[in-house]
Design a protein that fits this description.
Layout lengths: L1 H16 L1 H22 L13 H22 L1 H8 L1 H6 L5 H23 L12 H26 L5 H17 L12 H9 L1 H13 L14 H25 L5
């Protein structure tokens, strides 16, 4: 596990030294939350309840967006490592590709959770009562969602030869699954096709898990159409395990040449 620890530490240190990536991954969701939440607060009532403002409803979705952007910025390092020759050097070491993928995903997950904890400082601005139990549950849920998204990003990054192509595919894939996860609007009231897409979208259950963990002390803030906690946990765990298997399979078949 020494190789895993070294790669994990490298991912964390490199991300922390690149301030533009830290700023972009954290501030962009904050801007989305403040602008969209502030603009829609007067006309949007999640689940038809007057007790829940749109800022409160959108807060877990913005938290998921922090995790999503961090996964994009962190996993793009695979493309850069292949072009610089670092990845080829790692592959000649006595470490399996599964452990390499695990270390990369663990590093991206660590960074994502740290940024999510920074975003949680803004919870009082949204009127979110964060209890100690709710905080622990939210961190655990964020780690699980971040691990799933990081492995999804790695599965794509191991096949990419340019950062431009990586960004195009990630934006085409990740942003739609975020919009269709219940982060931006609830399932109630949408059309039949959109509702079906939200039901089969695994991130729907990840956002639901974040929402239920964050509002564990105030059940009234959770819309009625959010999946039950047990279903959210099972689907998110399956999503994370499936994405890790996919990323490992892609890494084993991928060429390391730029």
């Amino acid at each position: 596990m020494t190789g895993v620890q070294a790669l994990w530490q490298r991912e964390v240190l490199r991300f922390g030294r690149q301030r533009s990536r830290v700023t972009g991954a954290l501030l962009q969701p904050i801007v989305f939350w403040l602008l969209l939440g502030g603009g829609l607060s007067g006309s949007f009532r999640p689940g038809g309840s007057d007790d829940v403002s749109y800022l409160q409803y959108f807060y877990p979705g913005a938290l998921a967006l922090v995790l999503l952007f961090t996964a994009i910025f962190a996993t793009i390092s695979v493309v850069e490592d292949r072009r610089s020759g670092f990845l080829q050097g790692v592959l000649v070491a006595p470490i399996t590709r599964a452990r390499i993928v695990f270390a990369q995903a663990l590093g991206a997950t660590t960074v994502a959770v740290l940024q999510a904890m920074l975003f949680l400082v803004l919870a009082p601005l949204a009127g979110v009562p964060v209890t100690p139990a709710g905080l622990l549950g939210t961190v655990a849920a964020a780690a699980l969602v971040a691990f799933a998204l990081s492995n999804l990003g790695l599965a794509i990054a191991w096949r990419m030869e340019s950062t431009q192509g990586f960004h195009a595919i990630m934006n085409l894939l990740l942003l739609p699954i975020w919009f269709l996860s219940g982060a931006f609007f609830p399932e109630a009231g949408v059309g039949r096709l959109l509702k079906a897409a939200m039901v089969v979208n695994p991130l729907t259950y990840g956002v639901g898990l974040l929402r239920r963990a964050l509002y564990s002390g105030s059940g009234g803030a959770v819309p009625a159409d959010v999946p039950p906690l047990g279903v959210c946990v099972v689907v998110t765990v399956a999503f994370a395990a499936g994405m890790f298997w996919l990323a490992t399979a892609v890494a084993r078949r991928s060429s390391t040449l730029p």
